[in-house]
């Protein structure tokens, strides 16, 4: 069992930055591929970014590529999503998730554990 807890959401003006953190506890954090997803009002949940268990491989959705950066820290079992140049369309609840897949996957069904989510709002 892995427990995930997001933090760092909030309200920011368009063009600003936020840093989301995901703290993991329970089973060995280094064994899991990690990902960030988001769900905007009235829309389905979508993949944002993912990082492999080794940390060497990252994947980003086209909508955030070049603006968001995903990293993981094995020392304190955390994952970070640095979000820069935020746009109003980035407004959503952001979730971190853990998957036992070897490669980064964009499929939410392949993630085994989920956090409760944190709200991000970028105002125009």
Describe the structure.
The chain is mainly β and 124 residues long. The protein has strands at residues 2-7, 10-13, 18-26, 33-39, 46-51, 58-60, 68-73, 78-83, 92-99, 113-114, 118-123. The N and C termini lie far apart (40 Å).
Helix and strand topology:
Layout: E1 2-7, E2 10-13, E3 18-26, E4 33-39, E5 46-51, E6 58-60, E7 68-73, E8 78-83, E9 92-99, E10 113-114, E11 118-123
Parallel strand pairs: 2-11
Antiparallel strand pairs: 1-3, 3-8, 4-5, 4-9, 5-6, 7-8, 9-10, 9-11
Features:
mainly beta; seven-stranded mixed sheet
Structural category is mainly beta
Percent of residues in beta strands? over 45%
- Largest sheet, described in full? 7 strands, mixed
Helical coverage, percent range: under 10%
* Count of individual helical segments: 0
Order of helices and strands: EEEEEEEEEEE
Quaternary assembly: single chain
Shape: globular
The average pLDDT score comes to 96
Q: List low-pLDDT spans.
A: none
Radius of gyration: 13 Å
Separation of termini?
40 Å
Number of strands: 11
